[in-house]
C-alpha cells in the first residue's frame, strides 16, 4: 500500500506539472513551484532505505528544498489576476474557465504545500528513531529552527527571487543575500510566517490525531 501511495503521488505530480506547463493558459509557473515543493516529499520516501550517514545527507537536501512547500502558500496572491474578481464590490464572475484555473491553483498549493510540510514530522520521527534526537525539547527546537529558516528562505525567494537551486549554482552570493541583508520588514515577515507555519503544522498534526482516534473507534 505504501508503494501504491507513493507512486500515485508521483504520477499525479507529473500529470499536474505537465498540464500546468503545456496545457493550462494561466499559472505556468506552478509547474516549477509544485515540482520544487514535491522534492522534500520524495526525499522523505527514501529515509528508511539508507544508513545514518546517507540519512544526514538526505536530511540536508531535505532542509534545502523544504521551504518550497510553505512557499507555495504565497502563490495565493496570483488569484487576483482571475476574471472572477470584478472589482471590490464582492460580485464574482461565473466564468467556468476562470474557476477551473482557481481550482488548479488551489489544489497545487494546498495539496503539495501540506504534503511537503508534513515531512517535518517524517524527518523528526526518523531522527528520534535513529537516536539523533532523543528529547522532546529537541524536537520542538528542530521544528522551530526549520520554521525560522524556511520563513527566511520564503522571504528571499519571494522578494529577492532566489530558489533552492541557487544554493548549488551561486552559493556564496545566495548565502550573502540570505544571512547578511537585513531589514525591519524582513524580521517581521519571518516572525509572521514562522507563526503561520506553526499553525499549519498544528493543523497537520491534528488531522493525524483525528485519524488515530477514528482507527481506535473502529
TrEMBL record:
Origin superkingdom: Bacteria
Record flagged with keyword RNA-binding: no
UniProt keyword annotations, A-Z: Membrane, Transmembrane, Transmembrane helix
InterPro entries: DUF1361 (IPR009793)
Keyword hit for Transmembrane helix: yes
Membrane-spanning parts: 7-24, 30-47, 54-73, 98-118, 139-159, 187-207
A UniProt-annotated Pfam family: DUF1361
Protein name in the entry: DUF1361 domain-containing protein
Organism of derivation: Enterococcus haemoperoxidus ATCC BAA-382
Amino acid at each position: 500500500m505504501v508503494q501504491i501511495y507513493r507512486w500515485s503521488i508521483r504520477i499525479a505530480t507529473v500529470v499536474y506539472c505537465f498540464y500546468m506547463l503545456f496545457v493550462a493558459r494561466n499559472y505556468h509557473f506552478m509547474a516549477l513551484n509544485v515540482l520544487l515543493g514535491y522534492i522534500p516529499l520524495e526525499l522523505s520516501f527514501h529515509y528508511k532505505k539508507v544508513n545514518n550517514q546517507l540519512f544526514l545527507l538526505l536530511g540536508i537536501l531535505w532542509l534545502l528544498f523544504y521551504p518550497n512547500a510553505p512557499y507555495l502558500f504565497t502563490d495565493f496572491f496570483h488569484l487576483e489576476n482571475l476574471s472572477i474578481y470584478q472589482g471590490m464590490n464582492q460580485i464574482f464572475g461565473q466564468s467556468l474557465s476562470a474557476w477551473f484555473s482557481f481550482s488548479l491553483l488551489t489544489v497545487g498549493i494546498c495539496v503539495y504545500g501540506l504534503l511537503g510540510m508534513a515531512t517535518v514530522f517524517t524527518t523528526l520521527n526518523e531522527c528520534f528513531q535513529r537516536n539523533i534526537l532523543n528529547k522532546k525539547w529537541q524536537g520542538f527546537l528542530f521544528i522551530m529552527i526549520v520554521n525560522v529558516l524556511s520563513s527566511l528562505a520564503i522571504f528571499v525567494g519571494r522578494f529577492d527571487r532566489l530558489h533552492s537551486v541557487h544554493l548549488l549554482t551561486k552559493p556564496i552570493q545566495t548565502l550573502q543575500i540570505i544571512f547578511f541583508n537585513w531589514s525591519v520588514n524582513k524580521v517581521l515577515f519571518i516572525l509572521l510566517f514562522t507563526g503561520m507555519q506553526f499553525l499549519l503544522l498544528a493543523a497537520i498534526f491534528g488531522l493525524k490525531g483525528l485519524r488515530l482516534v477514528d482507527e481506535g473507534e473502529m
